[in-house]
Amino acid sequence: MAVYASFRSIGAYAPEKILSNSDLEKMVDTTDEWIVKRTGIKERRIAEKHVSTSDMGAMAAKVAIERSGLDKSDIDLIICATVTPDYFNMPSTACVISDKIGISNVQAFDISAACSGFVYSLTIAKAFIESGMKKNVLVVGAEKFSSIVDYTDRSTCILFGDGAGAAVISATKDKSEGFVDIHASADGSYADFLVTPAPGSVHPANQKMLDEKLNFVQMKGNETFKLAVKTLTKDVIDILETNNIKSEDIKHFIPHQANYRIIKAVGDALGMREDQVVLTVQKYGNTSAASIPMAINDIYESGRLKEGELMLLDTFGGGLTWASALIPFAGKTK
Ligand code: UT7
Looking at residue 333, what is its pLDDT? Predict the structure, then answer.
């Protein structure tokens, strides 16, 4: 009998500390007006110094597992999507999270697909579950982006924030609960659009790396913006057409929260009404791999997300990578 992957629960963690646009006005040559007009962002959350990516991921994971109604011993795979891992080489952040939430002896690994990391991880969870290899996969998207942001660079420091989200993806025999469709793609010829040059094998950690600030994120913002609008619009139209689903059948359009203008352009191209579009960019900024699960958690906690409702996810990020998914929420309504 066929087995399907279902989206069973969601959880998230947002640090308490707020970095507002007026705080940034005191740090770099910018204004609240410019930031709001160009990005829609009003504030973002910043983790305390002693809080790591895995700390935030573990907090989100605990909530997601509790809401799934499962015991943590039922989880048989942990995937963490992050580009701000606790350690750049090893151990993986997923391994550190497994220890922090008290799950041992299960497969755990990280994936690196920048802002597309969470949806990329959902494709992996689906493949493991539908092949029969795993039953309950914990997918975490967690970022301490403040650890790779140069707070003297106005072109990037206004955009990013910290946080984590997590979901439990479980096997089901009920096709109506299963993922409708999901796909992920990449084009490495645009690798230099969004890059943290060091440390790595190209630029190992050394004094030059620090002097030239190669350990901070660099972005060709305007070029990335234009490509994001073009690619995402095509991508979401494709996934809807392939599955013969109309935009009005989507209850929640949950795009990656990078820039309100990108979300608006793609939403308008699809003919989405305002009440279908989930927005958290104004309060969290761009939290990369955590952005989509934090947004799903937002509508779950406010009681907007109900059992069986169809979500359309879309995301775009460093690599360049992008992904879209049509997934019904198979968890219990809050
Ligand atoms: O999550 C992964 C994917 N990421 C994205 O999708 C992000 C995509 N990019 C963006 O969101 C936008 O490109 C930005 C918000 C980063 C920039 O907005 P933009 O409308 O593309 O502005 P721009 O880079 O073309 O810059 C316009 C002007 C420039 O000044 P000049 O050359 O016209 O005099 C910049 O120097 O705005 C200036 N500028 C700023 N001014 C005030 C750049 N950053 C700032 C700032 N405050 N923070």
Answer: 81
Half-sphere exposure of 144 (CA within 13 A, CB side): 18
pLDDT of residue 334: 77
Tell me how far the alpha carbon of residue 36 lies from the centroid of ligand 1, in angstroms: 12
pTM, two decimal places: 0.97
Amino acid 1: pLDDT:
83
Per-residue CA distances from 292 to 138, 199, 268, 284, 331 (Å): 15, 27, 19, 11, 17
Q: What is the pLDDT of residue 173?
A: 97
Is 115 a residue of the active site?
yes
Distance CA 153, CA 324 (A): 31
Neighbour-count burial of 159, counting CB atoms closer than 10 A to its CB (0-12 exposed, 13-18 middle, 19+ buried):
buried
Residues contacting ligand 1 via CB (< 6 Å): 30, 34, 38-39, 115, 154-155, 158, 221-222, 224-225, 228, 258-259, 262, 286, 316-317
- Which of the following CATH numbers is that of domain 181-328: 3.30.930.10, 3.40.47.10, 1.10.3720.10, 3.40.50.2000? 3.40.47.10
Q: What is the mean pLDDT of each run of 10 residues along the chain (334 residues)?
A: 96 98 98 98 98 98 98 97 96 98 97 98 98 98 98 97 98 97 97 96 94 96 95 96 96 98 96 96 98 98 97 97 98 84
d(CA 19, CA 268): 30
Q: Cα(126)–Cα(219) distance, rounded to whole angstroms?
A: 31
Which pLDDT belongs to residue 158? 98
Q: Return the domain boundaries, the chain.
A: 4-175, 181-328
Q: Return the CATH architecture of domain 4-175.
A: 3-Layer(aba) Sandwich (3.40)
Is 95 one of the catalytic residues? no
Count of residues for the chain? 334
Q: What residue owns the CA closest to ligand 1's atom 21?
A: 222
